[in-house]
Amino acid sequence: MKFNIYALLCLILCVNTLTSQKKNADYRLHIKKTNYPVIIDGIGNDKAWEDADEANDFFRVLPMDDGLASEQSAIKMTYDDKNLYLLATFYNATEANYFVESLRRDFSFGKNDNFLLFLDPFNNQTTGFSFGSNAFGAQWDGTMYDGSRIDLNWDSKWISEVTRDDDKWVFEMAVPFKSIRYEEGVTEWGINFSRLDLKSSEKSSWTPIPRQFPTAALAYTGTLVWDAPPPAPGTNFSIIPYVLGEVNRNLEANEDTKTNGKIGGDIKFSLTSSLNLDLTVNPDFSQVEVDRQVTNLDRFELFFPERRQFFLENGDLFANFGYETIRPFFSRRIGLGVPIQAGARVSGNLNEKWRMGLMDMQTASVDETGLPSQNFGVLSLQRKVFGRSNIGLMVVNKQSINYPSENDSINSQYAKYNRNLGLEYNLASSNNLWNGKAFLLKSLAPDENGKGIAQGAHLQYSSRKWSWRLQEEWVSNDYTAEVGYVPRRNYVKLSGKLGHLFFPKGGPLVSHGPELNINYFFNEALRETDHLAYLVYNFDFRKRSSLMFFVSDDYVELLSPFDPTRLGIADLATGTKHQWNAFGWEYQSKPQSLFTYSFAGRLGGYYQDGNRTSLTTELGYRFQPYVSLSANLNYNHIDLPAPWNTNEFWLIGAEADITFTNKLFFANLVQYNEQTGNMNLNSRFQWRYSPASDLFLVYTNNYFVTPFETRNWGLTLKFTYWLNN
């Protein structure tokens, strides 16, 4: 086991930097209870608002954090026994010109005039809730984690309305206390408000925030001061049943058309005001957004994010342990081609210091493959230390039931069990300048080859002009995480980056500057196996467009056979060594235009002294706010010696997102992947007829590219309804 020097550095920094007071604690908004009714109409002329305190004098964050915003905003809040209310008014200093992408829920932040609320009910500056809207009323909601990140897959019951005129736009909302989690009896919450105004290219915040940090940074929230403790939400019990019917046919397997009906659902029960129990029986995820296809020229397994709703609330407790390429738990391993029978999860805050996540999932057996039924259990605990840091513990267990011993050698998925134990320390300084992590993982399995170790650590600094990061990783050859995502084993990695920004006093540029990134890989005997080093120069413009150039140096010693085209032509031999250089660029247009575009490219060497050219472009046009059209094209041209010779292939995607209202959506996606010989069509109609209740109609079809014919197709009608007390 290697000594982790960064863990010691993190501990020293914690003692020195994490004990100071929250930076913006003196920005205080008082909230008083109202006895008058509040009508959510986006007008805000109810008597309840007359005596409400106002948060105003917003600060500019972007393009520069140099004073008060030119486009000012005003926020009022009040509450009654059931709901938390907010009224936000956004004034136009210049002629009104609103920019929105569509009426799609959980919109892309940077492409819409919008307002966001950030709530930190536990004052831990790490977790919370976010609500908001764009200027045409599309809603945004999510749970907050890691101090500034937002999981938009979380949905809850709340209502809002927006009105607009030439002078201003107004947002009004009501959030039931039952829809959020908080500690009873606490009279001060962390809070902040953010506005993005694209006509002025200005992002502003109620509290001052350095420009290198997002306005969602909970380290820079102000304080919401209650005149009395907010009302206890009481027992919150919800049942979310679904019923569906589907028709499908697999022509590739020469099967007949099949029809199927299915029922199931979820149950949500508040164990406390901040801890929730979720149960699922016979879950179905047919309405989940389809994965975006990518051209795969990587030697290792690609990562596709989790999109299934049950796994997402408080998902950071389960999914963020370790690094992106060293995850002891990855929920997409559960139910992979196997029906999930039932599952349970307890997650949330135990108190101001402790968070917990406990999950158990049961899958069915598959007679065709001999795969036994399996149970997946995960325990995650977090303990807040110092100001904003935490110590985490994780236990992951995969257990086969009625294990068929005759399948011992077929595949690791038949193993009797695989377990992971992990300990992690996350550093976050009070001013957000310092961040870091140190973790250690131990795997357990029936075979000695599955009993290994993985560990990593990094330390990062981010100021306005300077940023740097140092990181190390080690994954032993016998480390296994069958319910995780660890695409590479038997390596030691040392990496770092150093960047600097220059800020011109005028002109079209806001900032520009270089960034150097270095990644070196070694085997466990500390012999170099590959490296990637690249120098980037970034340009950011005042109208929010951006330009980037890079040069890179690659070296690879293959650790296993690899086809550099992934077309099944031939493999390069294990142990062969390859080195090349490349040059590339990327440009993103300003989001204010109805027509948006980006283009990127990469020219340079490749394996076996070959050459690779890769060109990518994304095009978009919107008929705001109802229709958003987009297309992405990726072209690869690879020149190699025989037997590969010259190969080229396209990846093309086209999407039409039609939003009739902010409750009625029709999304269509077509993807053509020449590398895999597949074309996919996915059409999804969604009617949110009631808060958090939906009707879905989903059609999918997969085609062979050559010859062009259907592989399989399916049509699903699904109805869900949220019943609560």
Largest sheet: 24 strands, antiparallel, barrel
Beta content comes to over 45%
Low-confidence stretches: 15-19, 406-413
Level of helix content? under 10%
Please give the alpha-carbon distance between the first and last residues: 53 Å
Total strand count, please?
Answer: 39
Classify the secondary structure makeup into a structural class.
mainly beta
The number of distinct helices, counting runs of at least 4 residues, comes to: 2
> What is the overall pLDDT average?
90
What is the global morphology?
A: globular
For the CA atoms, what is the radius of gyration?
A: 26 Å
Domain DUF5916: 235-336
Protein name: DUF5916 domain-containing protein
Domain Carbohydrate-binding: 40-199
Pfam families: CBM9_1, DUF5916
Q: What do you see in this structure?
A:
- The structure is a single chain.
- By secondary structure, the protein is mainly beta.
- 2% of the residues lie in helices and 51% in strands.
- It has a 24-stranded antiparallel beta barrel. Strands 1, 2, 3, 4, 5, 6, 7, 8, 9, 10, 11, 12, 13 and 14 form a 14-stranded mixed β-sheet that branches.
- It comes from Maribacter cobaltidurans.
- Residues 235-336 form the DUF5916 domain.
- InterPro entries: Carb-bd_dom_fam9, DUF5916.
Q: What is the topological layout?
A:
Layout: H1 5-17, E1 28-33, E2 54-55, E3 59-62, E4 73-79, E5 83-91, E6 114-120, E7 128-134, E8 139-145, E9 149-151, E10 159-164, E11 168-176, E12 188-197, E13 202-205, E14 222-226, E15 237-250, E16 258-270, E17 275-281, H2 316-319, E18 340-349, E19 354-363, E20 374-385, E21 389-400, E22 417-428, E23 434-444, E24 453-462, E25 466-475, E26 491-500, E27 509-522, E28 528-541, E29 546-557, E30 577-588, E31 595-606, E32 610-623, E33 627-639, E34 646-661, E35 664-673, E36 678-690, E37 693-704, E38 709-720, E39 723-724
Parallel strand pairs: 1-4, 1-14
Antiparallel strand pairs: 2-4, 3-13, 4-5, 5-11, 6-7, 6-12, 7-8, 8-9, 10-11, 12-13, 12-14, 15-16, 15-38, 15-39, 16-17, 17-18, 18-19, 19-20, 20-21, 21-22, 22-23, 23-24, 24-25, 25-26, 26-27, 27-28, 28-29, 29-30, 30-31, 31-32, 32-33, 33-34, 34-35, 35-36, 36-37, 37-38
